[in-house]
Structures are given as C-alpha cells and as structure tokens.
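Hi support team,

I submitted a single chain yesterday and got back a structure, but I'm not sure I'm reading the token output correctly. Could someone confirm the output below corresponds to the sequence I sent? I've pasted both exactly as they appear in my results page.

Thanks,
R.
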Amino acid sequence: MSGTEAAPHTRSRPLQLFHEPEAVTWARETAGLTKNELAARVGFSVNLLTAIERGNRTATPSHLAKIADALDCPLVDLERKQQASHILGPALRELRLLRDISLASLASRTGFDPRQIARMEFGLPRVEDGRVMRLASVLEVPFPAVAFTMPRSLKNFHDPYELIPNGPTVRAIRECRHLSLRDVIERIARDGGKATIDRGFLSRLENGISTMSSARIVRLAIAIDAPISAIACPVREIPVEIREAFGGEVAPSS
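Hi R., thanks for writing in. Yes, this is the structure output for that exact sequence:
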C-alpha cells in the first residue's frame, strides 16, 4: 500500500453526545446572535438549529463542537447533564390558565410546539428538568410548582388510593389568586366539617415537608378554587420507581 493510499475504512459506532437544548439557546442568546446568524456561522440550516434548540433533533459531537466554537463557550456547557424527568399534567394547565396564557403563547415563549404542551397538560410525556424550568420561568412560579415533588414526610403513604398533594403547586395557585394563608384557612373553616387546617400545617405543606389526607386535599382544592388533579397526585399514578423508593405499593392490593 502506497504512502498516499487511504487506510481501509472501518465502521465504528460514533460517540453519542447528548446536548442540552436550553443550554444551546441560552448560549446563543447570551452571545447576542439570532438563529439565522448562528446557523450561518456553523454552516447549518436554520431548521436544523431550531430542531437542536427545541430538542427535536439530537446534536452530534461535530454539531456541538461547531456551536461551542462559534459561541466561544466550553463544550461541556452544551452537554446534557443527567436529569430527572417529571409528569406534569393538570397543574401545568391550571397555572397557565391562571396566568391567562394561551397554549400558542406559552409554546411561542418556551420554544415548544403547542401540541407538546397540550400533551404535557394531560400528563402524557415525561418532561426533563431543563424543560420544566423553562415552563416555570414563563409561568413565573417555582420549579416544584410545575413538577410533582414527593413530600419528605409521607404519613399517609400506606394507603395505595391516597392522594399525595404537591405543596409548591398549592402555594403558586394560592398566590396567583391573591389569597393569604389566613384566607385559605378561613375558607376551609367556613365550609365546616372535621378536616380543618391550621396556618402552620398549611405552611409546612406548601414547603413540601408535610402531606395530608384525601379529605383535607378536597377541602383545600375548594378553598383555593383549583381542580383536585392540579394540586394532588394519586399514589398509584406516581412513577413506580418513586413509590418503591419510599416503600409504597406498586399497585393496589387485589
């Protein structure tokens, strides 16, 4: 074989380097570039760059290297970190409606397709941390208000039909409705019954360090004028890995 002859081509599986869509968008905007300008610099089509930023297309190592070079940022900043994923569901819809934001508007402001958000509101796709953060930012609520967070105290977890409330969502909805803790407590008290709640208990719930019975969740939902499904998740619908980690049953006993 001559010195100029190419070595035999051997196929090897390319390194699969996952990118973080939000990181690419943030780095581009920080650099003050439009999609058209960045696409021209790296030699991509605008459609490809848009798909990469929306997470609809996996960026290859070559793609990421070109983007990082064009934006003068470390490659590691664009790589995907290990993330948790969340089921959003009715909480997302309730918060969107409270902010008077349409599906189309939320999609435009977050870079999602309206159909993606509609599916998220039904709890169909699992949504990763970065995307949840983008939604929470536009809705002006904390991350845990959009994504279900398992309370650190699970006093009622042994009943597989029990509802588990998402405290940060309760707080976000309460504040969107301009209700104080006292307002909510008084509404629940006026409604009568035994399922009363005091200020300290409600505060602990909203901070994700306490939980409550289904009866109290129903009363709380009425008090803040929210669907039960927006502020609580049935135990048996919580992802299996979370239930098992906390010692809960994977399925109701027959």
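A quick pointer for reading it: Confidence is low (pLDDT under 50) at residues 1-17, 151-161, 240-254. Let us know if anything else looks off.

Best,
Support desk
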